[in-house]
Amino acid sequence: MFGSIGPAELILIFVIALLVFGPKKLPEIGRSVGKALREFKKTSDEIKGRIEEEIEASELKDIRKDIQSGVDDIRSGVKDLTSGVTDIKKEIQKDIEAHETGEGPKVT
User: Fold this and answer.
1) How confident is the model at residue 103 (pLDDT cuts 50, 70, 90)?
2) What is the distance between the alpha carbons of residues 96 and 108, in angstroms, rounded to a whole number?
3) Residues with Cβ within 8 Å of residue 21, at least 6 apart in sequence
4) What's the pTM value of the predicted model, to 2 decimals?
5) 8-67 pLDDT, tens per residue?
């Protein structure tokens, strides 16, 4: 619970606090210390939560970059494919025109 502080050390600390502050002040001091520890724990939990949110946001940014890179690759591939289809279409059109004018090879 308290790391390396054992029961004997806790009793010694309690006796010293009792002698220094007196029996009337000791409960008040205990409440104050308890409130301070609760506030410290609450604040540390909030900070921990914010750090975890920032880590998640950073991971989401990395994922978004990866997805955007994949989308860019797909767009490039589609553009290349469209360009290839357009080239094939032009060649077919030339062959049709050549055939109609009688300049191209005879198709049987």
Assistant:
1) low
2) 14
3) 29
4) 0.48
5) 888 888 888 888 888 888 888 889 989 999 999 999 999 999 999 999 999 999 999 999
Cα angle value 69/71/75 (rounded, 5°):
115
SS (H, E, C) the chain: CCCCCCHHHHHHHHHHHHHHHHHHHHHHHHHHHHHHHHHHHHHHHHHHHHHHHHHHHHHHHHHHHHHHHHHHHHHHHHHHHHHHHHHHHHHHHHHHHHHHHCCCCCCC
CA triple 18-24-28, angle to 5 deg = 90
Burial pattern 36-59, b for ≥16 Cβ within 10 A else e, equals eeeeeeeeeeeeeeeeeeeeeeee
* Dist CA 91 CA 66 (whole Å): 38
Write the single-letter amino acid at 65. Answer: K
Output the furthest CA–CA distance in the chain (Å, rounded). Answer: 119
